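haha ok so turns out i had the wrong file open the whole time. this is the CORRECT one, sorry everyone. sequence first:
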Amino acid sequence: MKRRAEHLETIAGTHLFLILWKTYRAMLAKADASKKQILLGDSDFRVLEALLHKGPLPVNVIGQKVELTTGSITTAIDRLEEKWLVVRKNHSEDRRVRVVELTSKGRRLIEKGYAQHQQHMEAAVSCLSHQERTTLVDLLKRLGKFNTEAAQVRFADDSETPVPKALHSKVVAALPQHVVPPKSRRKDSQVRSPRPKKRTIQRGA
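then structure:
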């Protein structure tokens, strides 16, 4: 018990990353296997799922929600339209906008497929209690948010892009000194004050 406690206190960031990576790969394999049971690839499943839960959407909005590039989302919509799973229509209020919506065939497929997917993913995390799931979600959100903010600060330091002062101070304070960008290490005392302007004395003629 003592040895386990000592081990928990010395878990390195590299080891934690390795555990997260292996867990992600195992969960991803479960998710992919679930989607393949209804003969859908990952991107097609995500598009149909977004339409199921959000209703008709413009192509570019779907792309943002499922994290596909403009070219990839257009290809995915074309593929699903060929299978008569979705259809493009004019927006009811703005005819200049085209939206994508599920057909009756597409709705039946994704409703059945998503229900099965829920069951499979529930089984994948059945080893965790409700409280453990809540704790895990909170920790992963905190870890993801911290690294996203840290990336924003590093990008801003490299590109001279302005970043909110509160966010900059929060991230820099949490980072080890050896990974803080040099620009972020500068102390207020190191910033030189502007030199006073020299007074010009006009001499008489």
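DSSP finds nine helices and three strands in the chain.
again sry for the mixup
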